[in-house]
Amino acid sequence: MVIDGRIETDAPPFVLLSKSKEVYASTDLEAFLNSFVSGAVVIVANGTTTVTLTEICSDNLPPGTEELAASMFGVAVEDLANYSLCAYTSLDPSIWGEVGKTYTLTVSYEGQTYTAKTSIVAPTSFDNSYWKSDGDTPNLGYSWVTLTDPTGTFDAYKWEVKRINLDENGNEVDQSFIPTHNPVFDDEFFDGLTFDFWYENPFATGAGYTEESQWLYAQGDTVVIKLSKMDEALYEFMEKRYTQLQTAGNPFATPTNIPNNIEGGALGVWAGYSPSYDTLVCEP
After folding, report:
1. Per-residue pLDDT averaged across 251-267, rounded?
2. So what's the pLDDT on residue 175?
3. Among candidates 171, 178, 186, 193, which has minimal Cα distance to 226?
4. By CB distance 3.0 to 4.6 Å, which of 57, 129, 254, 267 could disulfide with 280?
């Protein structure tokens, strides 16, 4: 069993269940869709409220939930009906994420039970955000922020972005938040400090971008920055996960084993986030 679950402040729990594959098994779309697990009993509790999650599928959604489902599944609204993606969630706000609470996940399937816990810690917001042109490319640059890290506590962060300026059809250019190349970091080297740092544009890569324009935001872009706090167990999972992603196929890289916070023999993670947001207009 592979469990991929998350809960954020003011958002419902969302859990995907699937089965792992043999290393040489087929990796096409059909095989991917067939790996998802249906018919499990999934329960989330926060110490005062216990809710059994409802299984929903992308091609048979309750009316009015399309945009919420699209953001959770990470696909466009118009593409939802093309896939049979099933997940477990709840529209009961009493079990939605709250800062300071610990959430217990219990998954029961085919006589096996898997459990996990995660906490939603207090968020940390930016002091400031700004765009600065990059050397010889005055109309292109990185997104910069000023952050003051709390003193004397373990703090870990995840950075995600979405551009909300409009394309030629009047639609936002990005439909969902995505992480940058190396989006997670902790405060081991800057506990209690105030400092400035930058992140690249993960959307500006691949075909259509020159060597000079890759990873940069264009002047005039409007960017929503999502900075999520997480507990230490989740950070250990995420840091190792992105390390493995970045070194995959490198024969000189040290092998990375990804930990998880699931008990009972499953793989995966139950993740709690407390995001804060800032809107950056890319102008000098």
Report:
1. 85
2. 81
3. 178
4. 129
The backbone torsions φ and ψ at residue 281, rounded to the nearest 5 degrees and listed phi first, read -95, 120
Where in the sequence is the domain holding 28, given as residue range(s)? 2-119
Please provide residue 90's backbone torsions phi and psi, each rounded to the nearest 5 degrees.
Answer: -150, 135
User: How many structural domains does the chain have?
Assistant: 2
Say if residue 215 is in the same domain as residue 132.
yes
Paired strand residues for 158: 184, 228
Residues 139 and 255 in one domain: yes
Q: What is the pLDDT of residues 133-164, one digit of tens each?
A: 987 788 999 999 999 999 999 999 999 999 99
Ramachandran sector of residue 249 (left: φ over 0; alpha: ψ -120 to 50; beta: rest): left
pLDDT value at residue 123: 97
Q: What pLDDT is attached to residue 78?
A: 77
> pTM of the full predicted structure?
0.90
- Interatomic CA distance for residues 210 and 216, integer angstroms: 11
Residue 24 has pLDDT above 90, yes or no: no
Question: SS3 of 30, please?
Answer: helix
Question: For residues 166 and 164, what is the distance between their CA atoms, to the nearest angstrom?
Answer: 6
Task: Specify the CATH number for the domain of residue 94.
Answer: 2.60.40
In a domain, 268, yes or no: no
Select from 4, 118, 3, 10 the least CA-distant residue to 68. 10
In a domain, 269, yes or no: no
89, 119, 149 - which closes a domain: 119
